[in-house]
Amino acid sequence: MTRALQLLVTAVVLLVLAHEADGATLVVGRDGADLAATVAAAADGDEVEVPKGTWRGPIRIEHRITLRGTGGVIDGGGKGTVIVVAVPGAVVEGLTVRGSGTNLSGMQPDSCIWIEKAAAGAVVRNNNLPDCAFGIWVNETPEAQLIGNRIYGRTEQRPTDRGNGIQLFNGSKLVIRGNMVTGARDVIYVSAMEDSLIEDNQVRNQRYGVHYMYSYRNTLRNNLSEDNRSGFALMESQNLTVVGNIARHNDNHGILFRDATGCVIRDNQLIENGEGLFFFSSANNEIQGNRIVGNKVGAKIWAGSQRNDISGNAFIGNHRQVFYVGATDLVLGQGGPGNFWSDYVGWDQNGDGVGDRPYRMASFTSRLVYKYPAAALLTHSPAVELLSHLEERMPLLTAPTVVDRSPLTRDPTS
């Protein structure tokens, strides 16, 4: 391409962008008889304002427009999907979108907002989405952004009869930030997604807060999941980074791993769940710096969950610190720091922050404190110290358990 031709192409592109930047503003009811007519009349770069009132959907966005609510409600009338975004770069913001159909199956289940594969870089932000089968469905779309939306599921239905708040299927480089979802089936369901970010979302009163399946190289950061059946589920996935999240008051699990490998689980707070951490057939993960407090079981580990780096975590006041099923002891703290255990009985005579003897989950003292919580007041007494030393010197028949060879004597997460 010659220099002159390059300059000509650049000029044409700049003219097109300038035209789009100076696009017209169309108002529903003024520039079109109804919502669908106004959206159809808009060109790339235009804005379509939806003023106060209730406007009937469905609509299909096929131009690069911004559909902006200025008090308006878009109602699907209980049939099909309310808004379909079918073009790259379109923006849907500031709207109340409600009243999708009820179909939860097939190639295109009903939702309030559906983003098609062709709509790369579409943005959906600051919308209220009540009364939807699925709230927002991103279908094979790269680089879409869902920001600051409020999604309310159909709580009058059984959880199994509801759709998910946000459904992400086979996308890449997505950003899901600052959304609030309640009353759906799963809050954010992630299937076959790569290189994407989910952060700063609040999720409540569902089955799973965030549910990963068959996904790779994603980041889950600074989310709150509470009062769900399970907080965060990492299933059949690899190389996930799960950092700075809070899971509390969830019935079953704070963070669940099932066939998850190569993941980094760091600096999360798992508070008063059924099980803080649950491992099933998961290996080669880094679990570090997590604060695991007041759960019925701090960590449940079974079914071949080996070769995980579990270090620098704090297990505090869990009714049972660890439930472990395995053929041999699971040994932590070899060649590096271990974890902090609030029921550890031992001294740190040289003051290096590491206990002088290993922490063994099935020890006499841990069983004593588990059965009689008030016995924690006696854990550093001479009598209990003597019994612990006798147990080490004269071990009886014991089942495989968790042994931390370098237990920390100070909480590393405080």
CATH top-level class: Mainly Beta
Our count of domains comes out at 1
* Proportion in helices: 10-25%
Q: Whole-Å distance between the termini?
A: 62 Å
- Give the CATH architecture: 3 Solenoid
Assembly of the depicted chains: single chain
CATH superfamily, by name, is Single-stranded right-handed beta-helix, Pectin lyase-like
Gross geometry: elongated
- The unreliable regions are 12-20
Share of β-strand residues:
35-45%
> Care to count the β-strands?
39
Compact summary:
The chain is mainly beta. It has a single domain (23-404), classed as Single-stranded right-handed beta-helix, Pectin lyase-like (Pectate Lyase C-like, 3 Solenoid). 11% of the residues lie in helices and 37% in strands.
Essential attributes:
414 residues; mainly beta; Pectate Lyase C-like; 14-stranded parallel beta sheet; 12-stranded parallel beta sheet; 4 helices; 37% strand; elongated
Overall description:
The chain is mainly beta. The protein has one domain: Pectate Lyase C-like (3 Solenoid). Strands 1, 2, 4, 6, 7, 9, 12, 15, 18, 21, 24, 27, 30 and 33 form a 14-stranded parallel sheet that branches. The longest helix has 19 residues, at 3-21.
